[in-house]
C-alpha cells in the first residue's frame, strides 16, 4: 500500500464476543495490514475478513472489510459514515 487507504465506516458491532468495524474501501488499489495496524488512529488486530455482503444486483460487494478491534470500548470510537485511514 502506498499512502493511507481510506475507509467509510458502514457498521459497528460484536460478532459473538469479538468487536468489529465494517469499513467500505474508498481508495482504489490493494492494501496490507502493517505489523501494528491502526484504523482512524485506533490500534486494531492484525486480522482482516471480508463479510458476505451483496450489491443490489446480487453480486458480491468486495469493497467492504471487517476489522477486528481490541476491546468493546473501541466500538464507541467509530461512527457510521465516518471516514478513517488505515495506517501502520
Total individual domains: 1
Number of helices: 0
CATH architecture identity: Beta Barrel
Largest sheet: 6 strands, antiparallel, barrel
Which strand order does the major sheet show?
A: 1-2-5-4-3-6
CATH fold name = Elongation Factor Tu (Ef-tu), domain 3
In helices, the fraction of residues equals: under 10%
Low-confidence stretches: none
User: Beta-strand percentage?
Assistant: over 45%
DSSP summary, beta strand count: 6
The outline comes out as globular
Q: Can you tell me the CATH class? A: Mainly Beta
Derived structural class: mainly beta
Radius of gyration: 12 Å
Q: Averaging pLDDT over every residue, what do you get?
A: 90
Distance between the termini: 10 Å
SSE order in H/E notation?
Answer: EEEEEE
Q: What does this molecule look like?
A:
With about 90 residues, the protein is mainly β. It has a single domain, classed as Beta Barrel (Elongation Factor Tu (Ef-tu), domain 3), CATH 2.40.30. The protein contains no helices and six strands. The N and C termini lie close together (about 10 Å). The mean pLDDT is about 90.
Amino acid at each position: 500500500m502506498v499512502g493511507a487507504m481510506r475507509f467509510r465506516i458502514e457498521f459497528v458491532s460484536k460478532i459473538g464476543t469479538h468487536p468489529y468495524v465494517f469499513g467500505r474501501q474508498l481508495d482504489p488499489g490493494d492494501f496490507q495490514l502493517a505489523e501494528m495496524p491502526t484504523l482512524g488512529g485506533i490500534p486494531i488486530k492484525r486480522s482482516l475478513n471480508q463479510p458476505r455482503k451483496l450489491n443490489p444486483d446480487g453480486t458480491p460487494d468486495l469493497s467492504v472489510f471487517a476489522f477486528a478491534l481490541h476491546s468493546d470500548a473501541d466500538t464507541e470510537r467509530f461512527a457510521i459514515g465516518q471516514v478513517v485511514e488505515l495506517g501502520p
